[in-house]
Amino acid sequence: MVRCAFSMVEIMIVVLILAIAASMVVPMFGDNDIARLRAAGRLLAADLDYVQIESITHSDDPRVLVLDQTNNRYHIAAQSDPNTPITHPIDQSPYLVEFGSGRAQQMAGVTISAFDLDGDDELSFGAYGQPDQSDPATITLGIGDSTLVLTIDQVTGATAIGNVQP
Questions:
Q1: Alpha-carbon distance 11 to 17, whole Å?
Q2: How buried is residue 151: exposed, middle or buried, by Cβ count under 10 Å (0-12/13-18/19+)?
Q3: List of E strands, 5-153
Q4: Which of 1, 50, 104, 111 is the most buried (most CB within 10 A)?
Q5: pLDDT in tens, the chain (166 residues)
Q6: In 3D, which of 43, 27, 28 has the Cα closest to residue 148?
């Protein structure tokens, strides 16, 4: 009579493989708020780079990023008409970003917590890509109790994304 069964070594190997797989999958189901906050920071940094490039390209009418903390959104506009968003080059809609809707839909819950743009709500760049700031500009995004600060260098206009703070 032949008995078919698994040996203890085979069972341990299967358990080890499942443990390794679980250790790789579990972080993906971790804190989605932090992932949304980081994604919002990357989106804002990319849009700041776009504003800078557009300002160099359109040196006769540089571009400006206008923050609207009350409505939790921002838009990109021409400096000559900062209240009217320019047209987004891909979807031909107004270049308006509101966390939780449109192209920022996956970032629901992220807010513009604070900003320091030399006393106003606009960040513009000159014909050579230099920001209109005398000090580094900061924009703070938040979700729940966590915050993320983006710092825009006052000389180069480069955007640095900080670490998420609990």
A1: 10
A2: middle
A3: 63-68, 73-78, 81-85, 96-98, 111-116, 122-124, 137-143, 146-152
A4: 104
A5: 667 777 777 777 877 787 777 766 655 555 599 999 999 999 999 999 999 999 999 999 999 999 999 999 999 999 999 999 999 999 999 999 999 999 899 999 999 999 999 999 999 999 899 999 999 999 999 999 999 999 999 999 999 999 999 8
A6: 43
In a domain? residue 11: no
In a domain, 166, yes or no: no
Rounded to two decimals, what is the model's pTM?
Answer: 0.81
Q: Which residues pair with 139 in a beta bridge?
A: 115, 150
- Residue 81 falls inside a structural domain: yes
- On whether the CB atoms of residues 150 and 77 are closer than 8 A, the answer is no
> For 17-106, where are the E strands, in sequence order?
63-68, 73-78, 81-85, 96-98
**Is 16 part of any domain?**
no
> Whole domain around residue 123: which residue ranges?
28-161
For the chain, the domain total comes to 1
Question: What is the C-alpha to C-alpha distance for residues 68 and 55, in angstroms, rounded to an integer?
Answer: 20
Question: Is 91 in contact with 97 (CB distance < 8 Å)?
Answer: no
